[in-house]
Structure formats: C-alpha cells, structure tokens
Amino acid sequence: MTYLLASGVLAAAKPVIPDYGTATPCVTHNGMFCTSWFLHQWPDVFGPALVQHIMLTVIAVVIGFILAFAAAIYAYRHNWAGPPFAGIAAFLYTIPPLALFELLVPLTGLSTLTVEIALVAYTLLVLYRNVLTGLQEVPPDIKRAAIGMGLTRTQILWRVELPMAVPAIVGGLRIVTVLTISLATIAAFVVDAGLGAPILKALQSPFNTQFIGAGALAVLLALAADGLLLLLGRALTPWARSRKAF
Amino acid sequence: MLSRRQLVRAAAIGVAGAVPLAVSGCAGATSTSKRGGMITIGTKEFTEEWVLGELYAQALEARGYQVQVKNNIGSTEIIDRALKAGRIDVYPEYTGVVLQVLAKRSKLPKTAHETYRQAKAFEERRGMTMLQPTPFQNKDAVAVTKDYAEKHHLKTVADLRKLGTIYFGEYPDNIESSTGYSGLVKTYHLPNVKVKSLNIGLQYKALEKGAIQAADVFTTDPQLARSNLVLLTEPKNLFGFQNVAPVVRKDVYHRHPAEVWHTLNAIDALLTVKAARAMNRAVAVNRLSPSQVAKKFLQVNQLL
C-alpha cells in the first residue's frame, strides 16, 4: 500500500507487471487481417460496438421518420408548408457532419443526445421528400374513385394514398438507413460508441485488422439493413407482386 | 401469412421495444450509486490516457461507484474546457503540460516536484485541484531515425543546425509553445527546421517514410522500442517534467467520499515507467483494448 511522505509526494509502491502475452506474427507485422485477434476481441470490442452502432442508427431513423412523416403529411394537406419544410431539411442536410457534431457539443455535451440530434437532422430531407412525393404521385383517378366510394379524407390518406406511397417511403428509408450507418461512424468523435470508436482509436498506430474489421462490419450492417427494408417494402405491398404464383 | 396491418403493427412494436432498450443500455451504469452520484472521467486523445481512464474507472466501479468514461475528448485545451464546463469531473493530466499549455509559462521549474507543486497551485486558483502524481514521467523528446543520426552525426538537438532545411513533426498543441517546436527553434537556434503538424502517434510513420526528418515523441511511447529510432539529448531541459496527476474540479472533490481519491492515488502510486511502458505496449503492440489492459493490471495488483 501507499503512504504519504512528509513532502506530500507518494512513495512508489512496487507494481506487479502483468504478462500481456506475445502478439501473433500477424499482429506484430500488421498483416492484412488477423482473424484470430479479431475473434478474440469480438466479445470485448467489436460485438458491443456493433450493437451500439445498430442502436444509434435505429433511434435516429425512427425519430427522423416520425418527424419527416408528420411534416410531409402536413405539407401534403397544406400547400404553403411545403417549401419552408423542404428548405429547413435541405439546409440541415448541407451542414458538414463533423461541423454539426462540434457545433452541438457546447449545447448538449459529449452525449448520445448530441449524436442523435445530428443523425436525425441528416435523415429529414430524404424522408420528407420521399413521403411527400409518394403521396403526390398517387394517380388522381384512384383518389376520385375513393371519394366516389364515400371515404373521408383521413380514410383516403391511410387506406389509399399511404399504401400507394409505400414503395417511395421504403426507398427513402433505405437511403437514409445506409446514410445513417455511415454517418454514425463519425459519432465516435463525440461519444466513445459505435463502430467508429475502434477506427478512431486505431488511427494513432494504424492496425489494419481494426480498420478492416470495424469498416467491414459497418458495410455488412448497411447491406443487411438495406436488404431487410427491401423485404419489408415487399411485405407491405403484396399487391405489387407478380401474379405468377398461382 | 400475416396481413399487412399485422406486419406494420409488429414492426412498430419491435421498434418501440428497441428504443427504451437502447436508452437504458448506457454502459457501466449498473452499479449501485453511492453518495455523490455519477463520476465522469475524461481522457485525452492518446493511448496512455485511455489506459489511465480505464484504470481509474474500473477500480472505482469495483468499489461500487457510478462511473462513466468519455474517451478521446481532445487536446489539453479542449479537455480543460470540458472540465471547467462540468462535462467531465476528472481527467489525467501531465504536470508540465499544465504549466506549458494552460498556464502558458515559458520558463519551467527545474525539478519534477516543483513542477507538480506549481501545476497544482495553478489549478487550485481556477477551482480545480490535482491528486497525487505518478512516479513515471512521459516527457517529450526529439527522435530521428538511427540511419539519419549516423549519417549526419547527430547527438544533441543542437546538431540539427548543421543540416539543410528539414521538417520536424509536432503535435498541434505544441507548435506555438515555448516548450515545443517554437521553443526548440529559439533555444537551439534552428532557423532551418520547419514544422509539420501531425497528430500524436502519426509521427512514427512519417519518420519512417522520410516525410519528416525529426519528430517530437514521448518517452513512454512503445514505438520507440519497436522501431529504429534514437533520441537526441536535450541539454537545456526545455521539455520540462511530466508526471501524471488527475485534475479534479473542487466541487466534485468535496462531493465524493475520500475513498474515491484514495483509490486513484493508490493506482497512480503503482505507475512506474516500467508499468506505463508495459501497458502502452500491450495496447500498441499486442493490440489489446485499453480496458482489457487496465483490468489485468488491476487484477494482478489486487485492486479489483
């Protein structure tokens, strides 16, 4: 144990230096991809980073979708609101991501909140445009038929217009999800989370396996998310499938 | 086959379930809170700091405190602002750096102890305090490749004067500093030495590639053992003394039990140069994560 000397400086206790083992030749020579090291670090480093990354992305896309969806429906009903909404979303979209993160830090701190605000800001433009365009492109004949059947405006929106807009909406979601997955790697500048964290930490003493491991996970995550949304879009629009299945 | 409505509802429920999970899934906040609440530890942008942060955090967590670590906050000035603003409560800092970067001193004390004393006094005037310093120092030094040193017969920093225009790799914090690039040029009269701003850790590659001929390095850098570099002697002791001592805001210091600060002091007392190099090496060479490295060190020293 330690004790204070009269001078107020601690006497150094004798530390036990742990044996950290020896690095494999692949790790020592910074090979292209050291699989055994990657698997060894999966439970402590890459697994948690992947889960955090998925969470960052899902929260941002869900909140962004709720906001953009509400704004698009409002703009669809009230023509005046279209241009200002689009203007705000476009303005947010043009801010360089790193600058936006840094601008938010004084306001919301080095927190997940900061990251999410920025990520949500980048989802709005594409989602808003796609939902609105999807609604506007429903053929007028169909709308007239729905009115003729005695449906109210709200019924038409939910039963006719939105289902017709699903392909456009899912298309927007696919773009935004892939965008958010890549932007969320920059979040590591603000919070020590997500797949950007191992990349950022390996910058000082470059280690290929760490770059490639984290980078490949981000790419695979983007592909998987894109594929899932594609399937979701198909499941939501059974009428759009070919009738050859009979 | 599910109907479309059921599918939409299932998707909505799935998403709604995921959000609170994510919000509650904050790292490391599982231990019971003691009086004083959450302690937020910040670290600067390099390996040694991350290991220190993990050592402090894991030891405190094991004693039942609520701790979160914010790694990689940035340079001295940035992390100092974060501490003043209350975004972090404590972070490991180098005694000489406090005087050089924050107090903007051009003249540094002549001993390690005096450096610590003055750094602590400076921090105390600004509403912070410093805990006990580590035995190890991580000082700046000027490195050149072995081949280059032999070819041009370089022994001391002053020998750089004999060369033509050369480039010196320096981290952004330390370019304008009287105890960094600017100070070197002035003290040793090196008008031929131009600066290249490189973030900490990138200077080794640049030296190997020949993009720079000399660089500011740290004495506990594990790369020094690995690569073909030599350190030039620096007779005028411009770089000063650099022990580590945690900087804490005074309000935080008084809010938490003394056990918290005793724990950090006990850890720091164990950090000899050998221990610091071994841990830096485990991160840089064995590529273990700072948290794994810290955990093992705490375990073998019976601090967990």
UniProtKB/TrEMBL annotation, chain A:
PROSITE patterns: ABC_TM1. One of its GO terms (cellular component) is plasma membrane. Residues 50-232 form the ABC transmembrane type-1 domain. GO terms for biological process: glycine betaine transport; transmembrane transport. It comes from Spelaeicoccus albus. Belongs to the binding-protein-dependent transport system permease family. It comes from the Bacteria. InterPro entries: ABC_transp_perm/SBD (IPR051204), MetI-like (IPR000515), MetI-like_sf (IPR035906). This is Osmoprotectant transport system permease protein. It is a multi-pass membrane protein. It is found in: Cell membrane; Membrane. Keywords: Membrane, Transmembrane, Transmembrane helix, Transport. Its main location: membrane. The chain crosses the membrane at residues 54-76, 83-101, 107-128, 165-191, 211-233. It holds the Pfam family BPD_transp_1.
